[in-house]
Design a protein that fits this description.
heterodimer, A: alpha/beta, Hypothetical Protein Ychn, Chain: A, five-stranded parallel sheet, 5 helices, 36% helix, globular, B: 120 residues, alpha/beta, 4 helices, 19% strand
């Protein structure tokens, strides 16, 4: 079965982001497929490359990146939500003349169309609210 | 999947979630899908006429709602109980929305391929 996932929560605001990670890992372990993970609303903070969590806490960013690389999953970040919160790819940094690129590796800034595209191309759509 | 229901249950100016939910519905409509919108809980405040979000530094939800027709989104529903609980009359609404009882909402949700914003 093919899953589309949306994450609305920022990494350390609630358990939702971590739960989404664990859900994705379980889905893959059971032999299902994930078409795309879409980070929306505060979820875009997941892709912030400058976060430094304490060593005795789970590193959400690294966990998502590992999942994406190991299972070839697209990590798509809503571009409008990302720009608003300062999560910038190199292209957007240059366009808006800001001082730093803050989008982590393996994440991509995309339009909302990619969320709808993932939903309609999947068997199940699962959302992790803030 | 081609039947998508977008639910709005947050108040319109307590963040940008409502506006973004409406934007997602508009994008889905561009994909030529069967798009429905359901306003429930505090989300029904988004339909109240004569509001001006700019006073709070927000875009007015009104304007986005008035664009729904242009995207051919005709299936707009509102929770009857949520309106009643807040003393909102149908004549107070800024767009035409069909009121649904809780059991009618269950039927609506069950008939969809996916529900977006179910818990938000």
């Amino acid at each position: 079965m093919k899953f589309a996932i949306a994450v609305h929560s920022s990494p350390y605001a609630s358990a939702a982001n971590h739960r989404a990670l664990r859900f994705c890992a379980s889905v893959l372990r059971k032999g299902h497929e994930i078409s795309r993970v879409f980070f929306y609303h505060h979820g875009v903070y997941t892709a912030l490359t400058t976060q430094v969590p304490p060593q005795d806490e789970a590193n959400t960013l690294t966990a998502w990146q590992t999942l994406a690389v190991e299972h070839n999953i697209e990590l798509s970040v809503c571009i409008a939500n990302a720009l608003k919160r300062g999560v910038l790819s190199e292209t957007e940094r240059a366009r808006y003349e800001r001082s730093a690129t803050t989008l982590a590796d393996h994440f991509e800034l995309v339009g909302l169309g990619q969320l709808i595209d993932a939903i309609i191309g999947s068997d199940r759509y699962i959302e992790f609210p803030a | 999947m081609n039947k998508l229901l977008f639910t709005v249950s947050r108040p319109p100016y307590a963040g940008s979630a409502v506006m973004e939910q409406i934007e997602a519905a508009l994008v889905a409509a561009v994909f030529d899908l069967e798009v429905s919108l359901l306003f429930r809980d505090d989300g029904v405040w988004a339909l109240q006429r004569d509001q001006d979000g700019t006073l709070l530094g927000h875009r007015s939800v009104h304007k986005a709602l008035s664009g729904l027709g242009a995207y051919d989104i005709q299936k707009i529903y509102v929770c009857e109980a949520a309106l009643a609980a807040r003393g909102i009359d149908r004549s107070d609404l800024c767009i035409a929305a069909r009121t649904l009882s809780l059991s009618e909402q269950q039927t609506l949700i069950a008939s969809q391929d996916a529900v977006i914003g179910a818990q938000t």
